[in-house]
Amino acid sequence: MSKRVGIEVSIALADVVGMANTDVVAAYPITPQTHIVERLAELVADGELDAEYIPVESEHSAMSACMGSAAAGARTFTATAGQGLELMHECLYVASAMRLPIVMAVTNRALSAPISVWGDHSDVMACRDTGWIQIFTENGQEVVDIALCAFRIAEDKNVLLPAMVHLDGFHLSHVIEPIIMPEQNQVDDFLPPNKYPFLLDPARPVAMGDFAPPAIYTEMKWAQEVNLQKSKETILKTWKEFADIFGREYKPVESYRCEDAKVLLMTMGSYSETAMTTIDKMREKGDCENVGLLRLRLWRPFPTDELREAVKNADVLIILDRALSFGAAGGPVGMEIKSALYNVTNKPKIVNYVGGLGGRDITVAEFEEIIKKGIDIARNGSENEFEIFGVRE
Amino acid sequence: MGKSENELTWKELEVGGIVTEPGNASQYKTGDWRSQRPTYDFNKCIKCGMCQIFCPEGCINQNEEGYFVADLFYCKGCGICAHECPTFVITMKEEE
Amino acid sequence: MELKEPIAIRIHGRGGQGAVTLAEVVAQAAISEGKYAQAFPSFGPERRGAPVQAYIRIDDDKPIRNRAGVVFPDIVVVLDPGLLNIVNVTAGLKEDGMLVINTRQTPDKIEIKLGEKQNLAAIDATSIARETLGVPIVNTTMIGALVKARNVVKIESLLEPLNKRFGRLAEKNISAMKKAYENTLVKEKKAIG
Question: Is A285 strand, coil or helix?
Answer without folding.
Answer: helix
